[in-house]
Specification:
This protein is of the alpha+beta class. The chain is about 35% helix and about 20% strand. Strands 2-1-8-7-6-5 form a 6-stranded antiparallel sheet, sandwiched between helices. A two-stranded antiparallel ribbon has the order 3-4.
């Protein structure tokens, strides 16, 4: 894979480590990593009432049993259901989305690709550097939205505890480098994993992405997540 990774200290804002800085400055479609921003918008506007709200399935079978059912904001995030993002965006509305993206300083802030696909191989693009800035401001409550929307979004992006009770938060994203049919077979993909690590009294914000140089599987986002966990462990950041 051709990839990049950047991690910074939330308290100081200083970069702890960075790999392939040129790629970390390059913008790519966020894919499902956009669900963090989408959830902030949903909680802020009342589209999401709380983390346990029942989101009624639209009845369209998408070949994934875990998302072909009613979901909650938490399972929407953990199971990465694109149809829920498609349900959120029209309710937030194009004008409000544009305003949110500006206040979030979210990449190129270009949602012209449409309410159903702007964040998937389309107009909206963001770099790993910009992801880290966005997540830092989100975690520090500096996005200009309510504390409640911030806290609820933090709650639904929790993934798991690592060694020594370090807490991992974040979201994967997977896209196809060519076409749209790569996710159910081995193929060349691009994967994101962005998030936050709370370890002892320290908090770190990270973002990484990678493009496959040869056909691979499973989806690239989960592979990027697993690689990130190994990086965090090798850096010794999970036991501080």
């Amino acid at each position: 894979r051709d990839g990049c990774f950047i991690i910074s200290d939330l308290r100081t804002g200083k970069i702890v480590d960075e790999y392939n800085s040129e790629r970390c400055k390059a913008r790519f479609s966020p894919y499902s990593s956009f669900k963090i921003a989408a959830s902030l918008m949903a909680f802020e506007t009342g589209v999401f009432k709380n983390e346990n709200q029942i989101i009624k399935w639209d009845g369209v079978k998408r070949g994934r049993e875990e998302i072909d059912q009613d979901l909650t904001p938490f399972t929407f995030m953990s199971r990465s259901a694109k149809w829920v993002t498609e349900w959120i965006m029209p309710q937030v509305g194009e004008k409000a989305i544009t305003s949110f993206l500006k206040s979030f300083s979210y990449g190129n802030q270009d949602f012209s690709g449409g309410l159903k696909d702007a964040w998937v191989s389309s107009s909206l693009k963001i770099s790993a550097h910009e992801q880290v800035n966005f997540l830092s401001n989100f975690w520090n409550g500096k996005l200009g939205i309510s504390e409640r929307a911030t806290d609820l979004t933090k709650k639904i992006i929790f993934i798991k505890k690592l060694e020594n009770n370090a807490e991992l938060y974040g979201k994967t994203g997977t896209g196809c480098l060519v076409g749209h049919a790569c996710l159910d077979r081995a193929d060349k993909m691009i994967g994101w994993f962005v998030g936050v690590l709370k370890s002892g009294s320290n908090t770190y914000v990270f973002a990484g992405n990678a493009s496959d140089l040869k056909p691979q599987g499973p989806p690239a986002g989960p592979r990027m997540r697993d690689a990130t966990v190994e990086i965090l462990k090798q850096m010794g950041l999970t036991n501080r």
